[in-house]
Amino acid sequence: MFLEEKIVKPITFTRVKRKLIRIFFREQWSLLLLAGGKDGFLKPSGKNGRILKEIIPPRDFQWADPFIVEWEGKTYIFVEQQYKHENGTLGFIELFTDLSHSAFVPILEKFYHLSFPNIFRYENEWYMIPESHENRTIDLYKAKDFPATWEFETTLMRDIDAVDSIVFFHNTKWWIFTSVKRKSFNDNLCLFYADAFPTDKWTPHLCNPVCADVTNSRMAGAIFCDDSGKIYRAAQNCLKDYGKETNINEIIELTETSYKERIVKTIFPEKEMNVVCTHTLNFSENHVVRDVKTRVWRI
User: For domain 28-297, is the CATH number 3.40.50.300?
Assistant: First the structure.
């Protein structure tokens, strides 16, 4: 995220509007911590959840794409940190019981942009798949000493312009959910599957892109299940702005030849908090975390 394409673009009303917004408003991505787990977000009606705290980074820094982990009595929020227009760096903050937090601890930095630190556990090991599309790879990292020390494990896919990749195991197959560059990264969802993990042998889904809608394609967090076993996918609505809203989709059918889903909930920005966008949503046992972009007058 926050990455601008280095090509000459035509002057449009949208580009002029965004330029004026940057001149007259100060925008910042921060974190919103909410109480509870998944249940509140799966209800088709009701509020977004009880807000516990807005976690704001230092001035001119952005904290976004949060993944929250509760492990061995501690809570960590992994984020992308970006200073002004520099490349993103991945790291975490520790959340304490009084809802205060540690300073940002960097865990991964490259000469190219990084974001979306997809953290997950498999066979008693912690793994991370960061967004690294500038390197044209989908890479896998493994924790040597969780949460602070990570080592490169393998490359899952090469020569691919893909963002916000999530892995998920379903019906004997491993799946990668990702968005591959076409006109943009925001207008499609593509699936790939394999028999084992980790591997670099992935088969494209027969129906790729399985979703070609700028309002509901790009991933907005990890795949998750409710207590009944239903599967859900969070997706960004990027029609009016990048990550303007977050949709929760129930995945109804996922096979090598078909894919079906339906929107069951939409998370809107909290206007009363000057929030204008929200595009990542993840859960731990006791908390929900989202990123939110606020916009205030510079004066």
Answer: no
